[in-house]
Design a protein that fits this description.
Blueprint lengths: L1 H6 L6 E2 L6 E2 L1 E4 L2 E4 L5 H12 L3 H5 L18 H11 L9 E2 L2 E2 L13
Antiparallel strand pairs: 1-2, 3-4, 5-6
Helix pairs in contact: 2-4
């Protein structure tokens, strides 16, 4: 459902590198990591996908707001961060931590992802 909206242009994912395709989400077992532009229109559309288009019913996943978090690039303006957090009712974190035992962010040193 998220790919459908991203392919249609109504939901904007991000490019992780200049030559990479646009990434709107990553699916892992029973979790989803969504990657998107943090503007108000995009956040509202994402919220609509979750609620109005019934993403949870279609995917079989449930949103756990206590476990959910927003992480922004350092270039994201403070007002955009606040708008996104308010729109989605999800808290912002300064470090996304680890997922499945690996750090979510590892910077420019790719071996940092496996050496702790």
């Amino acid at each position: 459902m998220i790919s459908y909206h991203a392919d249609g242009g109504s939901f904007k994912g991000v490019k992780l590198a200049r030559s990479s395709p646009v990434l709107p989400h990553c699916l892992f077992a029973d979790d989803t990591i969504n990657v998107m532009n943090a503007n108000k229109e995009n956040c509202e559309h994402f919220r609509d996908i979750l609620h109005e288009y019934e993403y949870c019913s279609a995917s079989g996943q449930r949103i756990d707001y206590e476990k959910s978090s927003l992480f922004f690039s350092c270039n994201t303006p403070a007002h955009a961060k606040a708008d996104a957090a308010n729109c989605l009712n999800i808290n912002e974190v300064s470090d996304p931590g680890k997922y499945l035992g690996l750090p979510v962010l590892w910077g420019k040193l790719k071996n940092g992802a496996v050496i702790d």
